[in-house]
């Protein structure tokens, strides 16, 4: 799997949500609304989610394993930081 495009839409202000990213995988599949959030330990990503009937939020799309999540997080945050310079 190759991430072939990352687009960042930044938010102004002082909230915890800093930006939203869209990624393209292998030039053929896009995932929108990946949130970039400032947490207690630094920036992290939150995958697109929807509120369930029980009031909790559930990811709509997400990596199956830790290695893929870390790879996505590193690439997205790197792009966000590059565009912040």
TrEMBL record:
<protein>
    <submittedName>
        <fullName>Septation regulator SpoVG</fullName>
    </submittedName>
</protein>
<keyword id="KW-0131">Cell cycle</keyword>
<keyword id="KW-0132">Cell division</keyword>
<dbReference type="GO" id="GO:0030435">
    <property type="term" value="P:sporulation resulting in formation of a cellular spore"/>
</dbReference>
<dbReference type="GO" id="GO:0000917">
    <property type="term" value="P:division septum assembly"/>
</dbReference>
<keyword id="KW-0717">Septation</keyword>
<dbReference type="InterPro" id="IPR007170">
    <property type="entry name" value="SpoVG"/>
</dbReference>
<dbReference type="InterPro" id="IPR036751">
    <property type="entry name" value="SpoVG_sf"/>
</dbReference>
<dbReference type="Pfam" id="PF04026">
    <property type="entry name" value="SpoVG"/>
</dbReference>
